Amino acid sequence: MKLLDLLGYYNYWVFAVVLMVGLYAVISKNNLIKKLIGLSIFQSAVFLLYITMDKVEGGTAPIIQAGVENQIFSNPLPQVLILTAIVVGVSTLALGLAIVVRIREAYGTIEEHEILGAD
Amino acid sequence: MIYVFALFLLTLLVITAVAIVRTTNLFVAVMLTSIFSLLMAANFFILDAADVALTEAAVGAGVTTVIFLSALALAGDVEQPRLGSRLLPLGTVGVLAVLIIYATFDKPRLGDPDAPVHQHVAPWYLEKTPEYMDIPNVVTAVLSSFRGYDTLGEVFVVFAACIGVLFILGVRPPGPAAELPAEPSGLRHHLIPQVVGRLLVPFIVLFGLYVQFHGEYGPGGGFQAGAIIATGVILYALLEGEAEALRAVPRSVLLGLVVGGALLFGAVGVVCMLMGGAFLDYSVLAADPVFGQQMGIIVIEAGVGMAVCGALLSIFHAFAAREGRP
């Protein structure tokens, strides 16, 4: 019980730290692929926040078993939202990478300051 | 005990994230991203989200890594060290982190059954799923029926992103056309990956089909199945070369899967309207509303699986085909 309290906040702290690590990569790195990696870390942190909120104490995955009474289930709604968001995330990431590949072909580099210098 | 393990996993997650950002070798960063996803999937599983864990493991650790690697092959994998001062971004990020951590003390603690998020519509979903759909997996019921509009939207986003990638990478690059390599690429000359991989491919595809059709009873469904089957075909492409994979599953089939899957989903909604119900209200599909719901869910899950599998494979081939050119 006490440990679960601690873990509850620990989950949110990990969310905050991972979110900021991703944001740091996006704002401070020059390499475009590194920025996209940072963006996907940022996105994963948000997924962790949602899934942390779905947990119910003593609960189990929301799959109803026949013949078992009074089961406690974790919240299915955040799971649905994040499940689809993961697949959408990889598609949009691929779109970003495709644009990076075209930038590389046009400018010969994917470092942001060199691209700005070439313009 | 499981919570001690969760603490350990979450700490590893932070360490991995920092390592990803610190390394200047992008290949290492991508490999660490794959580990990051796997750790994230384990965390999701501990937090009771079996469906999400399955998706994250298949998409994050599998497909994302391959797409990143094919982009690295085209764009180079060395990151130049940063020139300017790190103080400003570090300061900004530090202040924001402290602010967010301060805000978390107002959050309900983990597992609190009285948290606002558990009071709204979720108990209704859990209560009504056996009555309306009579399928065990509530996640699938919410995904495909209660919130079918959302899912339709997501499928069309995947569809649009896939079309976008095909348009961006389909244009012929400037310069003379390259000679295609005469011998087939892939890992044909590596004996161990060849033998083990060839054994694995059919089982991966079979597992994908199981996840697709068992999604109403256990963790699974169209999104996971599409990603798993795509992983199986990508593994085949890595082993035998891209041309061989395109012979097995041609581009036209992939495009048909993407378009057909999205259209199938939309068409079910229109059929529901024609039969006198609301858009995506599957109850009217059969005389028995529960059976109608089940039929609708199975058909749209199939549409989702087709669209996701086709989109991921089309994206992979778009990147891989670019590699053969200058």
UniProtKB/TrEMBL annotation, chain A:
Q: Does the keyword Membrane apply?
A: yes
**Subcellular location, record wording:** Cell membrane
Going by the entry's taxonomy, the superkingdom of the source organism is recorded as Bacteria
Spans traversing the lipid bilayer: 6-27, 36-53, 80-101
List the protein's name: Cation:proton antiporter subunit C
Cellular component, GO, one term? plasma membrane
UniProt xrefs under InterPro entries? CPA3_antiporter_subunitC, NUOK/Mnh_C1-like
Instruction: List the Pfam families hit by this protein, alphabetically.
Output: Oxidored_q2
Task: Name the membrane topology term.
Answer: Multi-pass membrane protein
Q: Which UniProt keywords apply?
A: Cell membrane, Membrane, Transmembrane, Transmembrane helix
Please tell me whether the keyword Transmembrane helix is annotated for this protein. Answer: yes
Classify the main location: membrane
Q: Which family does it belong to?
A: Belongs to the CPA3 antiporters (TC 2.A.63) subunit C family.
From TrEMBL, chain B:
Q: Which residues cross the membrane?
A: 29-47, 54-75, 87-105, 152-171, 191-211, 223-239, 259-285, 297-320
How is the protein disposed in the membrane? Multi-pass membrane protein
Every copy of the Na+/H+ antiporter MnhB subunit-related protein domain together lies at 192-313
Q: Which residues form the MrpA C-terminal/MbhD domain?
A: 12-73
Entry's InterPro entries? CPA3_antiporter_subunitB, MnhB, MrpA_C/MbhD, MrpA_C/MbhE
- Superkingdom of the source? Bacteria
**Which positions are tagged coiled coil?**
none
Q: Which UniProt keywords apply?
A: Cell membrane, Membrane, Transmembrane, Transmembrane helix
The family database entries (NCBIfam families) matched by this protein are listed as:
PRK12504.1, PRK12507.1, PRK12508.1
Protein name, per record:
DUF4040 domain-containing protein
Q: Provide the organism lineage as a comma list.
A: Bacteria, Pseudomonadati, Pseudomonadota, Gammaproteobacteria, Cellvibrionales
